[in-house]
Design goal:
- Helices cover 79% and strands 0% of the residues.
- By secondary structure, it is mostly helical.
- The chain has one domain.
- This is Pentatricopeptide repeat-containing protein, mitochondrial.
- One of its GO terms (biological process) is RNA modification.
- GO terms for molecular function: RNA binding.
- Keywords: Repeat.
């Protein structure tokens, strides 16, 4: 399977089977793109699991070298708005301003 196929499966699993099963698929992925990371972060934020979202963000940015692109930031802001998570919402806003995204 390609990274795109894996990401489509991941998105479907997170939406229909939940985050626990989604995390299993995410962990099984041989390669992860920014969209796969965004699916998981947005899923955790939307469900109110802030600490898990922050852990993934840290891993995405610092360990894997993926930057936060415009789509990722928009997804994160949407999830923050839906969950009422102002802490991460503010962090995303500051990040976007500093990076000029």
């Amino acid at each position: 399977k390609s990274v795109v196929s894996w990401t489509v499966v991941l998105d479907t699993v997170v939406k229909w089977e939940g985050l626990e099963r989604g995390r299993e698929v995410f962990n099984e992925m041989p390669e992860r793109n920014a969209v796969a990371w965004t699916v998981m972060v947005a899923g955790y934020l939307g469900a109110g699991f802030t600490s898990e979202a922050l852990e993934l963000l840290a891993e995405m940015v610092f360990q894997c070298g993926h930057g936060l692109n415009f789509v990722t930031l928009c997804s994160m802001l949407s999830a923050c708005a839906q969950s009422g998570n102002l802490v991460i919402g503010r962090w995303v806003h500051v990040y976007a301003l500093k990076k000029g995204t």
